Amino acid sequence: MVLQTSVSPEAIGQLRQSGQFDAAWYANRYADVAMSGIDPAQHYLWIGRRLGRRSGPDSGLADTAASTPAQARAKGKPGWNDLPVHPDRPNRWVHNTAAIARNRAQALAPLTRSFNPASMNIHWIIPDFGPGGGGHMSIFRMVRYLESFGHRQTIWIQNPTVHQDEKQAWEHIRAWYQPIDRVIVRFLPEEVEGISGDLVIATDMWTTFPAAQMSLMKERFYLVQDYEALFHTHGTFTYVADMTYRMGFKAVCAGAWLKSICEERYGLWTRAWELAYDPMYYYRGEKIEHDPPRIAFYARAATPRRAVELGREALLILHDRGVRFRVDLFGQDDFGAALPYEHVNHGLLSPAQLGDLYRSTDIGMVFSASNYSLIPMEMMACGLPVVELDAESTRAVFPEGAVAFAPPTPHDMADVLQRLIESAAERERLRAGGAAFVAGLSWEKSARTLEAALIEGLSENSRPVTPRALFTTRDYAHKAAVIIPTWNGGDLFRSVLQALVTQQTDWAFDVMVVDSGSTDNTLEIIREFSHRGVRLHQIPNSEFSHGRTRNLAISMTTAEFVAVLTQDATPATPHWLANMIAAFDKGDQVAGVFGGHLTYPDATSFVRNGQEGHFAHFAAMPHVAQWGVTPPGMEWGGTQWQQWLHYFSDNNAALRRCVWDKIPYPDIPWGEDQVWAWEVTKQGYQKAYAPDAFVTHSHNLSEAAQDKVSRIEGDYWLRYFNYRFEKDPQAVKASVDYLDTRDAAVAGVAPDVLAHQQALNRAAVCGRYRGQFDLVEQWRAKWS
Fold first, then answer.
1. Which CATH architecture has domain 98-273?
2. Alpha-carbon span 303 to 610, nearest angstrom
3. Which molecular function terms from Gene Ontology are attached (predicted)?
């Protein structure tokens, strides 16, 4: 049974046939629809219209303020003055300001120390981007290859100024850079402490600061593509850049020069990878010598390290000498200076256009005053002799004969260019040297080098374990065991044990109860069942912790699968345990299984409807949840998808012992079950739902109890999942108004029951807000 409404089947049918309602869009846009367990059309007619919701993407109605809890803003009185408000504070992650350096780096404190080397969970933090960025192209190439290797990745965009939403950013990565597919793209939020994964990669000096706050990561890396201390006039930002190399990240560097700086100057763990080229666009064509010779000049004057002004002066000197040539400028749309010699400004070019340009010119001129860029290799691959600055950074990368080294003075540069213009033999020598240099380069090889470095660095403090390696034949004393932590379980616990020991299975199973100092009749009840195979282990109450105590209980069993119950969750049928264990066969890498919850007879209609709708939702979804699966009507990578992946309740669950051996429950005060499920799905395991393995379990909470639980939940969701709900009292009021409106629309509810439920709504939302408010204030105290 799910929510009962007064909407007629005829009205639902008429709406569906009208062509004015998009059920999939509506359910995906409004998160509460799926969780209600009722048909989207019924939901829209029941409450959606009252909240001013849109019926489809092309609906003429705009969302009103009370459209969804996340988007809602209060109408009427501004209210709820008893709720605290965060003081105004500048954006935490704004770059080009020293204020970002006030964020003190936090020590790594991951909840688990194992990872899947065949499918790492990788997080990137990048600055926002437009088209044509060389550094971004290298990042996105690595992302694409790592995706093809099987790794799970999320890109966080810091300070989004170019893009209006995350979908647009994802589309622009594909259109402007690389055809990524199953990569999550998100805007970086203010609070990042609850973001978890195997590793985070900072990609420039400004992204190191949020990365340094992600303490749930197992390792931090710094993708160093240049030495950014050289980017700024010596002063504040020089020191800020220098600071980022002293944060202790593991450095994965583009080339030997950066590797030597990170190792020798900063003492970092360092590995290097090579810049390469894309043979789809950069390859040799039929060589035609031009008269006058054509010079392809990377004239991105907006980037000072490209030393464009020196090149411009060298070309003017050549012109004054009477040397004939034509310059093909590229890299920016407006060069900003009148030139006396023959030239064409091509502006920003696509990779295909760049390849065509290189194949139709005679000499390539590109300067890098800091680390080398992609362009020399791309020119070499097209058979273009390259003129590059004679500097420590370029000498560390290019051997003699690969490029023509030009000392950084206009006259010396002009001499090198003139020699190449006048000597066909010299041009041919450099073509051959360049071809030899790029012959061993490929982006796939570089990505494999980066992958190996990430695995090596991650393995220093975490265990590499692939799921399939665990799923091997092993002898266990029992097929299954059941563990239950107890503390003052009362008479209800007798019913739980009675239902448990009468389970009908084809195999023997073990029952382990760990009690943490009960003072009621719980111990007597356990002893009543000692002859039925129920074992007891006692610990002091001071030693209890949800995750740690369950781990202790599991460690005292010797079964292939371990079911987990609570003292108030009664198996609903004699086949509960058999059905729970059978669900492990739903997939080839199922690490955990959970079942549904029925309500006790005293449950209120709202508790009953809520639980029934919740598990009807899971029954309608694929019963095996894993990273690559997207249920119908759900956005892959979105919040609903993430919640579907990590929902797990050890009121009624089971774990595969060999997975638990490597990934035990985290030792946290509350919510260990969902954190565990999130971790195993991130590592590539599956989680299954057993629709025929119900327990009876429900609670009717008082307002005080609801407030207490919701404060804990608010802290928990932000601390471990980075879910931030209401951020101010106006949003709190709007969420309560939304819930009250929804509940008032339920048919047949007595006024006193509705009034109590609406009081619970306020307690729940206000408690959740206070829990998150207090945690953010704790974090802010560490920021400065």
1. 3-Layer(aba) Sandwich (3.40)
2. 58
3. glycosyltransferase activity
